[in-house]
Amino acid sequence: MAKKKQSSDESKKESGKGPVMFKENIDKHKEKPITEKKETEEETKQRSTTNAYMIKLVLIGDAAVGKTSIRQRYLGHGFQKEHLTTLGADFAATTKEVDEYQIKYQIWDLAGQPMFKNVRPRFFKGCFGSLAVFDTTRRETFLNLSNWIEELYQFSGRGVVPVIILANKVDLVDEQEVTQEEAQEFIDELNKKIKDLSIENFFLETSAKTGSNIEKAFEIIGQYIVERFTSTDDEE
User: Taking the model in full, what pTM does it have?
Assistant: First the structure.
């Protein structure tokens, strides 16, 4: 059974089981629905021929939740126990085959410390989706998810965009402070609030140390973004 910590933040006490996505935070970003840049005829022809796509993703979450380790693991660099603090943002790009698609991921790993809050907005701009990470051994990082998602919606330039929540460090079984059920409940509530936007969010338990579900996380969010835009194009 996961251990519980008493938060000193009274607003978090009132939220009960976990972070709260206030409805007004969703409503005020509905004016900027997720849309794709208009393509030229040549770009459309090339895309339909090669099934090649480029998407920008942002890794968000509190400091030391494992964002950089997740990125490094996905890029094939293995797990490093010690990392330097991310200053502002780190960038990486890689191309992967996901089913019939060739996806070039632009991955922006955003610093989680409060001191970088004022510089983060420029790195959100233009992203198609996000991997929002919390540390299962530090409950406050779970409670802060709603703040991160609000920041994402505010500065993405696309309004509400799809998110995959990653419960990281699940290999530390005896130290967990957040249950899988709590995280799934948060995602379910978020999906209900944006149902009318036809955007879906996802949840996975991950371990950057063992590599569990890291590849799968990028595949899920990448494939979802590609297929959502493809189906939108077909309808038009």
Answer: 0.78
